[in-house]
Amino acid sequence: MPDTITLHTSGPKQVTCISNTFIDSYMTDADGEYVKIYLYLLRALTLPQAAFSLQRMADQLDHTERDIRKALLYWEEKGLLRMEYDAKANPVGICMLDPDEAHIKNLSIHVSHDLSAMAKPMDEPSISEGGNKAAPVTTSRDESMSTSLPSTAEEEPEEAEPVLPEKPSFTREEKSAMVKEEDTKELLYIVEQYIGKPLRQSDCEYVLFWKYTLGMSEDLIDYLVEHCVSTSHPSLHYMNTIALSWKKKGITTEREARAEDSIHSQAYYGVLRSFGINNRALTRREEEFLERWIKEYGFSNEIIQEACERAIAGTGKVSFPYADRVLKSWFDSGVHSMNDILLLDKKRPKVNKTSNDTNKGHKNFHERGYSESDLESLEDKLLKSN
């Protein structure tokens, strides 16, 4: 992403002016931090073609870059600025637009939206008879956007709970209602910035699935995407597997997710140490093994590392399948601690070895003892043969 982007205006103003329309029609409804960011942009316009970066702006206002992007998206949706992008969807410019013109356009959009909502057939998921403001979007977001939105029985959500859907399944009407929400548009924009390219339809559906079906908060989704991208897993399909695992574990906050990732990270680096892997990261297949040991078997880092060390001792090399067989046998035996493993080892019958470890591969041969006379006889035979 370019370090700097260009800020310019569509008007000839060279002083910091604040439109009365902005104060009367936009400022009162906006978040205070968004207003501060908008005023900062106006101030920056006093320098023609002012060049700055979002990071510098974030540092100046004591915000995160994510906060700046959210504010820019908000004001772009309001029509007060226009973001400009390069061919790779990186922001390269911000054009400040006239608030008076934006206000007129917004009025016409609102009137058109209200009329279309009133004329819409009653096939949308249960809305009130008097509502003409796309009620399923704003009233009960998590419930009204689900694939089954009955207005009669309270038992249906309870019946659906045991079977957790694993992928998006929305009707066109539901998706249309979802993306009309301001915070949903904002969320999709943030995800797109993390990914670094325009979202495909399937990508957008995953984000909607996390928010409306799995009930994940926007902060939790933000952390999910940020964490996966930072660990070189930009695929939303991969992110969905993480989201599903969090749902099954009851993880609902960013703090809980960070704690879960901390546990995973400790196990990850513990496996690297136990196997002596120093010059590479785990492959996707190896990570799948680790996920199984943590999530399906529920083993502690200590037990996992013990299995890895036994795999090295048993094969002389890094072998995740061998470690998996060890852990699977412990799991089937009800192992929960290192003490349980020690008890299993004591119960296991000892195998009598016929040779030392250095003579592996020759276990079926017994050592012979040679006397001094035998050696002298062999030497005589060798001399005579020459």
The portion of residues forming beta strands comes to under 5%
Distance between the termini: 81 Å
Largest sheet: 4 strands, mixed
Alpha-beta content class: mainly alpha
CATH T-level topology of the domain at 5-105 = Arc Repressor Mutant, subunit A
Total helices: the number is 19
Q: What low-confidence regions span 5 or more consecutive residues with pLDDT below 50?
A: 108-155, 157-161, 358-363
Overall pLDDT: 76
Written overview of the protein:
The structure is a single chain. With about 375 residues, this protein is mainly alpha-helical. Among the domains are: about 5-105, Arc Repressor Mutant, subunit A; about 255-350, Orthogonal Bundle (Arc Repressor Mutant, subunit A). It has helices at about 20-25, 30-45, 55-60, 65-80, 100-120, 135-140, 140-145, 155-160, 170-180, 180-195, 200-215, 220-230, 235-250, 255-275, 285-295, 300-315, 320-330, 340-345, 370-385; strands spanning about 5-10, 50, 80-85, 90-95. A four-stranded mixed sheet has the order 2-1-4-3. A hairpin with a 5-residue loop joins strand 3 (about 80-85) and strand 4 (about 90-95). The radius of gyration is 32 Å and the shape is elongated. The protein starts with a strand and ends with a helix. The model is unreliable at about 110-155, about 155-160 and about 360-365 (pLDDT under 50).
